[in-house]
Amino acid sequence: MFTGSLVPLVTPFKNGKIDEDAFRRLVEWHIESGSHGITITGTTGEPAALSQDERKRIIELAVEASDGRIPVMAGTGSVHHADTLELTAFAEQVGADAAVVIVPYYVRPTQEGLYQHFKAIADSTKLPVMLYNIPGRGGANLEPETTVRLARDCPNIFGVKESNKDFEHVARVFHQTRDLGREFGVYSGIELLTFPILALGGAGMVSATGNVVPKETAELYNLCAAGKWDEARELHYKLTPINDAMFYETNPVPAKTALGLMGMIEPEVRLPLAPLSEANHRKLVECLESYNLLPSAVAAD
Q1: Which residue among 56, 105, 161, 248 is the active-site one?
Q2: pLDDT computed for residue 181 by the predictor
Q3: Residue 106 known to be catalytic
């Protein structure tokens, strides 16, 4: 099972096109920083702004750049079932290590519709599959009972990324997946809930903050895995301001802006996302300065 900080990479753009060189540099940086895995073309990777061919290229590029040194988990989910099947098959073909499949957004399917959707995808591939529940963006919630049903019926569904702010829901997912007779991972998709989810036995996190402070994000998991709970708790509190900063505006705008200020990528996003507002830009600079993340020339400005 995949564990640790599975960072959801941004998709860097330059002059309107995917910046492949910057993407390769990001992959190298995460390997050097100790990230335990990378996820791509998920929410933070702006999948709705990418064509199907662009998503395929990012998946292929991530596999090439990682070269087996770090797990690559391909975000293959879509509102379109056939596109999800196509992307999942492509990810398997080019050597991705797992598929991350989001609850289809906008259409608000029933629990039976979600079950049939995810089961068809899991049945179509040999890849391990992570379910991705994000009701705040998707408009539908993957209920714990449906998660358990899928886990029982689909052996390659190995876990769920929970981006549900309702911690009671998350606790029920933990409770109801305990008796499956096999390992099943619950992963935090909410930055401020990462520490409590790890304390309940979570397998890891998929955190936008990992784009900016990958070493510290990975260390939070490492401390919890080592049972160093006091140190982990302190690191959790230390990361709270930058966790908040990553959501000053819609993800991934603050993360891409931060990486731009750090000299890692161009901070481009695609419409309908827009550049960070001037007020939030100032706040972000102050936050990054407090973590000593900015080059001296930027900090001086």
Answers
A1: 161
A2: 86
A3: no
pLDDT in tens, 66-93: 999 999 999 999 999 999 999 999 999 9
| Three-state DSSP class for residue 191 | helix
Helix (H) or strand (E) holding 17: strand 17-18
Q: ∠ CA(78), CA(83), CA(86), 5° rounding?
A: 125
Do the domain assignments include residue 185? yes
For the question of residue 161 being annotated catalytic, the response is yes
End-to-end CA distance of the chain: 45
In a domain, 270, yes or no: no
| Domain total in the chain | 1
Task: Compute how many other C-beta atoms are within 10 angstroms of the C-beta atom of residue 80.
Answer: 13
Domain annotation covers residue 221:
yes
Average pLDDT over residues 117-135: 98
Give the pLDDT of residue 297: 52
* 254 touches 285 (CB < 8 A): no
Catalytic residue among 132, 187, 221, 248: 132
Q: Is the whole model's pTM more than 0.85, yes or no?
A: yes
Per-residue pLDDT at 160: 98
Query: Domain holding 140: CATH number?
Result: 3.20.20.70
The string over 198-220, giving b where at least 16 C-beta atoms fall within 10 Å of a residue's C-beta and e elsewhere, is bebebbbbbbbbbbbbbebbbbb
